[in-house]
């Protein structure tokens, strides 16, 4: 499908640009949290649209019909697990509710992980202390 190919290529381009920009970014006071928040919102809209078109478990046949599909599934699980492990100590340090975020991530994957990173960066940019809960 041409639309899906274009969307996948555009996503890859945006991914590379984001990685380069993050690598060049210093941690000095800018509102970095806005980027993962925007990505989370955009991906949520796309995900809801996809679920509306193909159903809530439409991803499963894609990931179980071939070795490549299963490889991508395992890669997604590993990537989200790595993200969770790296974000969790910092999230706890600013008082975020780890359990609630874990449930959201298990249910929505990158949508919630991006939102969690946005919230973490927002709290860190404000110099948040442990009593603040998210």
How would you sum up this structure, described in words?
With 134 residues, the protein is mainly alpha-helical. It has one domain (33-134). The chain is built from 6 helices and no strands. It has helices at 2-24, 34-54, 59-64, 67-93, 98-108, 110-125. Helix 4 (67-93) runs parallel beside helix 6 and helix 5 (98-108) runs antiparallel to helix 6 (110-125). The chain is globular.
Q: Quick recap of the structure?
A:
This protein has 134 residues and is an all-alpha fold. The protein has six helices and no strands.
User: Given the helix and strand composition, which structural class is it?
Assistant: mainly alpha
Radius of gyration: 16 Å
Uncertain regions: pLDDT < 50 for 5+ in a row?
Answer: none
Mean pLDDT: 88
Number of spatially distinct domains: 1
Order of helices and strands: HHHHHH
Number of strands: 0
Name the quaternary structure: single chain
* CA-based shape: globular
Number of helices: 6
